[in-house]
Amino acid sequence: MNDSKKIWSDFCDQLKISGENVLKSSLALSELDKAEGIRYLTRLLRIGLEMHLENNNPKFPSFYQASHSTAKIGADNPDNFYQNATISSSYKYRISGHRGTVPILSFGTKANRYAVDGTMASTGELDIRDISCEDDGSFEIIVSKDKVDGNWLPLENDSSILIVRQTFFDRSKEEKARVEIKTINQFDKPEPIRLKELSVSLSNIPLFINGTSKVFLNWATLFKEQHRNRLSTTEQSMFSKAGGDPMIYYLHGWWELKDNQALKISCFLPNCIGWNFQINNIWMESLDYKNHNIHTNNILAEKNPDGTVTIIISKKPQKGNWLDTAEHKRGTMLWRWTGAESHPLPKVEVINV
């Protein structure tokens, strides 16, 4: 067997093993759950290929999307446009772009260890409110270990990924920011791909699939056991260790309903930059927001006269802020408070419809 055949054979063998955590999960009770589990593995594979093969060179970084409408990780936000870039503390980078009108724009460097210990620790954070922009909305950010004057995003020795989060409240009216990243160090063009480097890249992908699925299956199991039909995850350290946005206070939970039931969620709304709520499947993927109304936020939701909001989750349409279960009977859910002066716990109750 020549080297190329062995590399491919080893990759396929490890890929098969990496899916076992998902395929043996006791959370998957229905045919829909199981089918989505297989699709989840194919999505993680696509993300892994983008991350560890196609965009893995920190000398020549470029932004790609690790989460979007058909590839989802860890309760991905339907209101977000995510961008990722592979980086290293060995280099210095310049991010250039244009502000646009998106309400929330943040940049973070992380130590991506999903495949090792399930963490993605923050190594630097920068929010658009702290970035000096030109009158035309353009800006530049230096990304480096050593502090510089002006817009600076820190790196640490183990920084390996840069994440840009753009959060929309109404996509029909808001303009996406434009961003690019380049190393300040001068390099020639990338070297052609070699079998040795290819082998390393491919070996990282099953590790990524296994590590990522394990993290969020553990979360979903915890939510089912301790937060069934509740939004009460007030301890935030688990979410920050996994790469959560420091601006956000996360309230996760598990929802489970019969066909004649609905989940009624009521909450007081404090002063905040924004909030949103979404429902996910058991794999912690947001439900199909291209074809179903599965989330709402501080702009889209209709408010009550007393300053509260009421959301109804059910299979059949309801009046008011109705979210569609899209034929699911169970899954996880998430309420985000972004830049809020307080973090009230929503009241969650099961009602008959």
Task: Give a quick summary of the entry.
With 353 residues, this protein is an alpha+beta fold. Helices cover 23% and strands 30% of the residues. The strands form four sheets. Strands 1-7-3-4 form a four-stranded antiparallel sheet, with no helix packed on it. A four-stranded mixed sheet has the order 6-5-2-8, with no helix packed on it. It has a four-stranded antiparallel sheet with strand order 9-15-11-12.
Task: Spell out the blueprint of helices and strands.
Layout: H1 3-18, H2 20-23, H3 31-54, E1 80-86, E2 93-98, E3 104-113, E4 119-127, E5 138-144, E6 152-154, E7 161-167, E8 178-183, H4 195-226, H5 237-241, E9 248-256, E10 261-268, E11 274-279, E12 295-297, E13 308-314, E14 321-324, E15 330-338, E16 347-352
Parallel strand pairs: 5-6, 13-14
Antiparallel strand pairs: 1-7, 2-5, 2-8, 3-4, 3-7, 9-15, 10-13, 10-16, 11-12, 11-15
Helix pairs in contact: 1-4, 3-4
Structural notes for this entry:
- It is globular, with a radius of gyration of 21 Å.
- It has 353 residues and is an alpha+beta fold.
- The protein folds into 3 domains: 1-57 and 190-215, no CATH class; 65-185, Jelly Rolls; 227-352, Jelly Rolls, CATH 2.60.120.
- α1 (3-18) runs parallel beside α4 and α3 (31-54) packs antiparallel against α4 (195-226).
- Helices cover 23% and strands 30% of the residues.
- A 4-stranded antiparallel beta sheet has the order 1-7-3-4, with no helix packed on it. Strands 6-5-2-8 form a 4-stranded mixed beta sheet, with no helix packed on it. It has a 4-stranded antiparallel beta sheet with strand order 9-15-11-12.
- The protein starts with a helix and ends with a strand.
